[in-house]
Amino acid sequence: MRSIRSFFQSLRSPEKLQVTVFVALLAVVSFFSLCSLLMAYKTDTVINNQATGDDRLESDLNANILGTEVLMNLNGTMHRLLGHDQMNGVTRLQNGYLTELQGSVWPETLQDNAEKIAEVQQKLAERGIPFLYAVTPYKIQAEDPELPPYTEDHTNEALDLYVQDLQNLGVPVLDLRQAFAAQEADPYTLFYRTDHHWNVHGGFFAYTQLAQRMQQMLGVQVDPALLTEDSFHEEVYPAWHLGTHGQRTGTVFAGGADDFAILVPDFETRILDEGSGKAGTFEEILLDTSVLQSRDLASRYTYDTVFRFADFQSQNTGCGKKVLFLSDSMGRAVLPFLTLAFTEVRTIEAYSPQNVTMEYIEAYQPDIVVFMHYATVTFNAGCFAFSL
Fold first, then answer.
1. Residue 13: how many CB atoms within 10 A of its CB?
2. Which domain holds residue 205?
3. Diameter of the chain by CA atoms?
4. Is 36 in the same domain as 105?
């Protein structure tokens, strides 16, 4: 009893009281944050963090800290008031778009990855299967980088070297950066402001460029109506999507959430999901609109959820060709339209190249193989470990 009485008497000191209150608040926040994390693990809830590898547990806990959103936005407010262009590894370009800056890349890494792609192309060529490698644009445009003062980015410089390596090895390359720079709209408007992905209009434009090149390689004609947005109507969900970069900075630093839009055909469609055997319309099969029923800015998975990535057939459109599409999340906004144009598209995740085996190729017998992924993936050594 005496020790307890002494403790409360000591709290009469303002300094000790402040420390005690702080420690108590920290304990409460830590307790409820840990409970939130354990509940997320127990219910298999997708945790919205930006880390992989050894930092995963720490990042999962950080993502479940009580009041994370409020604290992040307070931090973002201070950064904006102080005129800072960078926060938590994210750079705010002069036009308000968020991105990450890329340092120099070893030319040897680019050359090695290009040689791996050339080996795949050669093995497919031996079996009479055309191969197309599509280079996606980075959000930072080479001709209009919009970089804040005293910053630099080497993404396009490295991609130039990589494209040259591929071409020197005889790999058919479609450099989408050139098409994005040449089209009428501001290239930045084809990307989400808070995310690293292109939006549905960017995905559709990339699809048209792919389709035009694939037509030439296969000697077929895609219905011109499938190559224009005029055959679709847009459904917009205002301020709906806070992407990967916005999740790391909060809405204040990001300048608010992005509008999220989908394009829906104005013509009759019938799509088959080869995995489930379910058939339905374009929006029933190729899209998952469940996350568009209520807005959740705490989730960065709107894009990844809405645009499904699986094996599909269009049963009433297309030129009757079979496509094997190796891609990552950049392909999600392209796949629905590619399916309409070429009838059957099967997919393999770009991060699982070991699944591309000759047994699979021989069983499926694709008319063409298309490889497209996020721009900076190829800057990583040993990223293309194919099993062909």
1. 11
2. 99-379
3. 92
4. no
Residue pLDDT, tens place only, 231-268 = 999 999 999 999 999 999 999 999 999 999 999 999 99
- The per-residue pLDDT for range 10-30, each reduced to its tens digit, is 555 666 555 565 556 556 555
Same domain? 58 vs 195: no
Q: Is there a contact between 252 and 92 (Cβ–Cβ < 8 Å)?
A: no
- Let me know: does 218 contact 280? Beta carbons within 8 Å: no
Q: Per the domain annotation, does 88 fall within a domain?
A: no
| 41 & 189 share domain | no
Domain-terminating residue out of 46, 66, 86: 66
Shared-domain flag, residues 300 and 361: yes
* pLDDT tens profile 42-65: 555 555 544 433 445 545 545 555
Query: How many domains does the structure of the chain reveal?
Result: 2
